[in-house]
Structure formats: structure tokens, C-alpha cells
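Appendix B. Raw example, untouched.
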Amino acid sequence: MIEILRPTPNGLKILKEPEEKTWLNVFVPDDQDILILADLLKIPKDEFLSFKENILSLQDLDEIPIIEKEKKYTFIIIRTPQKEKDVYTTIPIGIFLSKDYLITISFKKNEIVEKIKTRKIYFKKIDFFLRFLLLATRTYLNYLKDISKQIDYLEEKLEKHQRNEEITSLLDLQKSLVYFSTSLRNNDILFERMSHMHIFTYSESNEVLLDTLIDENQQAIDMSLIYTNIITETIHIMSSVISNNANRVIKTLTIITVIISVPMIISSFYGMNVNLPLSQNPFAFWLILLICIILSIVLWLALRWRKLY
């Protein structure tokens, strides 16, 4: 599906036919869509296969950011953040920059595309492209702040109760941070390459946008690293706490077993069918019970004195 769009200060305009200096948003392109795009970009027949492969490479959700300069276009892949049912991940989006068009292509619904559609801005191809990248980077930052709040919330719950649910949630957040960190670092390499290309720095405003983009992307990388370390340390501490609690429970049960063993041994002797001291005494039960209690208390005090409990 191909959308022909033109952002304006008054909002997004939807066009029926491609015009110069327009944005074409392509979602899950089929063979017919690819042929239409090749015709618009005037792709030579001997380059069509490479052009098609570039587009189809976006089907791989693990595709890494790249930038390729061709005769008719510049092809760029970046990774953008995505939130699906409280799970944070990243997906690739392809961008073709030609003389007349800016084309975005994705095989999965992209949040950044939907967000930038709502922006009321004057459409200038490179300026729009850099703003698109900046919006993606700021979305990373916003999601990282959300992750930080979730980490704080889970830490508070873990301080009260060490349950598997909270540990599992922290591990899920850690996995999301790995996705973010990897994608941000790959994007950073791409942005550094762009900073040395005249097409992105020919005007002062574009150069400022690119510098801001690189700075905020680096900030996002640093934040993802910090939050990853926080989660790692939190899980390590919680593992130590859980292990310590388990050791305390085992120690308590062992002490109880030792203390109870004294009356159990005495009771087992008096369960035999032989003559034993006090066996003919009418108060034997109470005397033996008293002896068991006294010995248990003495044993407990001895363990406390030796600081074993």
C-alpha cells in the first residue's frame, strides 16, 4: 500500500497522484508497489534487482542500520523503537531519498511514521528526514524514562516481597534495554557517517538538526547502559537476599529439629515395654514432660549462648 502525502503547516495533505517533493509512505509493499516505486525513481533495469532486494531486506526484523549511495537515490535503514503490549522492542524502517521524493518503507506498523503524520511542518525533504530521525531518537528517550519508572516501581515491590513475578518483569525490561542499546549504537554509527556527507549538512539548519540528533542519540545510549546496570545490580542483590532468606529458614528449621529431638529421644525410650525409672510413678507423664521441657530450654539457651541462633 502506497500513501502519497505532503506535510504542511496546516496539517497533512493526502494526494491522489505522486508529485514533486512529496512523501510516499509504503506499508508492506507487494510486487506491484515495488514496480511503481522503481518507475518513480527511474531505476534502470540492470539495477532493479538490487533495488528490490533493498526493499525486501526490511522483512528481516533484525536488519541493521545501513546507508547506501546509488545513482538515483540514497537508501537508508534505521531502527526505531516500538511498544507492543508493554513490551519494548525495535524494528527497521527503510528510507529512500531521491531528487523528488522521500519514501519510507516498512513491513510492520511503525509508531514514528504515525507520530510524524500529526506534525504540522513545512515539507523540505532533508529537513523532514532529519526530523523523522530526531523524533525516533526522542521516542527512545521517552521509552527509556518509562522503563526507569517501571524499574523504580519493581524495586519498591521487591523490597516488600521477593516474588518471581517482579524478577521476571525486570528480566523483560533488561531484554528490552539490550534491544534499545544495540539499535541505538548501530544508529549512532549511521548518524556519524551522515555527518560527513554533504547531502545532510549543506545548510546550517540541517547541520544543527544533525548535531542535535547525534547528541540525543548518545544520551539515549548512556541512559540505556545505566538502566541495564541498575537492573543487573538489582537482580544480583535480590538473588543474594533470597539466598540469605532461604539460609535463615533452613537454619531455623535445623534448630527446631535439634531442640525437638531431645523430647523425642526420651519419649521413644518410654515407649518400650521394659521397666524404666518412674514407670510405676502415677505422675510419670508430668515428670517426664517437665524434664523434656527443661532440657529443651537448656538446649535452646546453649544455642543462643553459642550464637548459633
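End of appendix B.
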